[in-house]
């Protein structure tokens, strides 16, 4: 899942690309959330005595409870969540999915064994590996969102890719997911820990793609090549190449093709029929719905519908549902606080570019920034910074 | 005696102004960087939620002596700076000094009878500041009023609600709020005063304006009231409010605040 060791590499080479923020600082922001990743997380995390939460009829409710409460947590902080569900996985992913199936098979066997030998820890471990999000779970989650008045969409293919397109199209501020490949799909901003439980007290981790590329000294294409070497969801990785080796390979050779040519084939075995070119192409231009054609509305919740669905059908405590619904309603009324960046444009801070190398780096960062914000709605009058602080102006 | 590699040195005759400047901004922005050039010291910083922006300018003319050989940017925690300045008497002179490539900034306080000299070193921080370009704006309405009036108005209204709607017409300006316990409004009418210009309320209106702001931030801004008898509110529809506290010959503190926007408009 995601890109192996990418966050580690970013922390090492582009520490400035990671910011930590309290959740409340994201009020008023529209955020696209990778629903499939989050639902999986809820199935794993929202449990009681090691098993799923269920209603009296024995139907699983972990996904609904998680989605209900975490959505309300965001709404309560003034965030506007937009949930994006996976569509049909791309063909490229079939090999990976096949492998996951195999592993499920193993886990199932192991679970059976564990049940016989009776180790509780073992049982829990393997049953967690068996977690699968079915179409039914997805449909129920969508039904819940509809009743809550929270917008959602189903991506044509991968949810992360669709989220990234929404960010670049200026529809939302960021992608919220734990999967780092949203950056590979060129999401300008990625937020982690957005759907975590409040009890974890995890600050939101914000990754800026432009700063990652600046820190790495790479273009987006080179970054994609690096991610393929690190290991992604769409093809095998080359055994024996760790994050540091992958990083130096791309830095030294400029791209994956050249890096492959230079490899000692005896030492590193490139998988047969390695479809890296198709993966490159997919990361560059995944199948997504055009953001310009999409509109989303955050509406008032359907109270009676929510009570019927959550309490009558799914056995949630009515008092708690009502209390949380108040939070949903509260956020619907009243004006929304604007932000400074909506009016004043940031002046790219180029820290003393003295050498030509630094200058090139700064230029690259600048380009990436434009790439990321090109379609953002900007007020025309904000384009001409008239009074930048004099010191910065002098440096530029 | 400044060392030979001192690149920046600035001296105030009295610590009181600097103390007030820091007290006026430290609760809104924690860590920031002071940009020093040969024309003066300035800082520009947003609060952590990026709703407000503070711009402070201290012009070189406002100092007793001022020297800046090359542009320097000093990352400082304003809370630490406030701690250091607490050690200075209001009438003590303050000298700020920074040496080339040094990771500290030096503060020297001297009482005017010169019997007490204290020196402090504050560690500088690496601050990744994001500067915003503030566009030159022709404001629709500009209100000049006593800063004490603004402070009182905001404090009074905060007891009732979180937001205030400021509406400016030709001859008066209204501040309105509503909350759970009720509503409140304050109307200030233009009034001239030839002998006491600091008590004047003057309204220059090109277009009528009505904007809504979070009172929480306005209450942060009015902490600058001790620096200046008058304050200027500059407003345009769908534009941040600018609250300026001018300090004649010294510089100014300008606060910018993003308005609250009606949800309906936002969704369209």
UniProtKB/TrEMBL annotation, chain A:
One of its GO terms (cellular component) is nucleoplasm. SUPFAM superfamilies: 5' to 3' exonuclease, C-terminal subdomain (SSF47807), PIN domain-like (SSF88723). One of its GO terms (molecular function) is RNA-DNA hybrid ribonuclease activity. InterPro entries: 5-3_exonuclease_C_sf, Flap_endonuc, HhH2, PIN-like_dom_sf, XPG-I_dom, XPG/Rad2, XPG_CS, XPG_DNA_repair_N. Residues 368-396 are annotated as: Disordered. It comes from the Eukaryota. Binds 2 magnesium ions per subunit. They probably participate in the reaction catalyzed by the enzyme. May bind an additional third magnesium ion after substrate binding. It is found in: Mitochondrion; Nucleus, Nucleolus; Nucleus, Nucleoplasm. It is an enzyme of class 3 (hydrolase). Keywords: DNA damage, DNA repair, DNA replication, Endonuclease, Exonuclease, Hydrolase, Magnesium, Metal-binding, Mitochondrion, Nuclease, Nucleus, Phosphoprotein. This is Flap endonuclease 1. It comes from Ramazzottius varieornatus. The gene is RvY_10238-1.
Automatic annotation (TrEMBL), chain B:
Keywords: DNA replication, DNA-binding, Nucleus. The keyword Nucleus applies. GO terms for cellular component: PCNA complex. PROSITE patterns: PCNA_1, PCNA_2. Pfam families: PCNA_C (PF02747), PCNA_N (PF00705). Belongs to the PCNA family. This protein is an auxiliary protein of DNA polymerase delta and is involved in the control of eukaryotic DNA replication by increasing the polymerase's processivity during elongation of the leading strand. This is DNA sliding clamp PCNA. It comes from Ramazzottius varieornatus (Water bear). The lineage of its organism: Eukaryota, Metazoa, Ecdysozoa, Tardigrada, Eutardigrada.
